[in-house]
Amino acid sequence: MPAWLVFVVIGTVSGVAAGLFGVGGGLIVVPALIYWAGFPQHMATGTSLAVLLPPIGLAAALEYYRNGNVDVTAAIVIAITMFLGAWLGARIASHVSGAHLRLLFGIFVCCLGIYLVYGAYERLR
Question: Hey, CA dihedral for 5, 6, 8, 13, is it positive or negative?
């Protein structure tokens, strides 16, 4: 499969996931770039961050806003602090090997998954 088609599939899947669940960059794009496109960990992370620049999420955010589902104050505060946090995280990541970074990412995703499944299970009981 040509690289551009792999990127189209990654973009489409992550776009749908972003619109449905508010996820896409770290949970979909990074692993997809590593396993489907053969990117090294650092390249996948950097590319995912470049993808997440404002125009990408704008359409979904506007639709949620139109339906009264965006807290603008929270979004601004989180965006500013996320900007600073992303800079700090990138500085740290540049000093960590790709294998260690991938391991930490996997642990993070597993812990998040367990937390979400447990919370959903508790609400269903």
Answer: positive
40 and 51 Cβ atoms separated by less than 8 Å: no
| CA gap 79, 122 in Å, rounded | 31
* pLDDT band at residue 16 using 50, 70 and 90 as cut-offs: confident
pTM (whole model) above 0.90 = no
Which alpha helices (H) appear in the chain, and where do they start and end? 3-21, 30-35, 41-51, 54-66, 72-93, 98-124
Return d(Cα 48, Cα 106) in angstroms, integer: 16
Q: Which of 123, 122, 89 is nearest to 108 (CA)?
A: 89
Given this model, what pLDDT does residue 57 score? 73
What letter does residue 22 receive in the DSSP assignment?
S
Q: What is the pLDDT of residue 6?
A: 92
Going from N- to C-terminal start, the domains of the chain cover 3-124
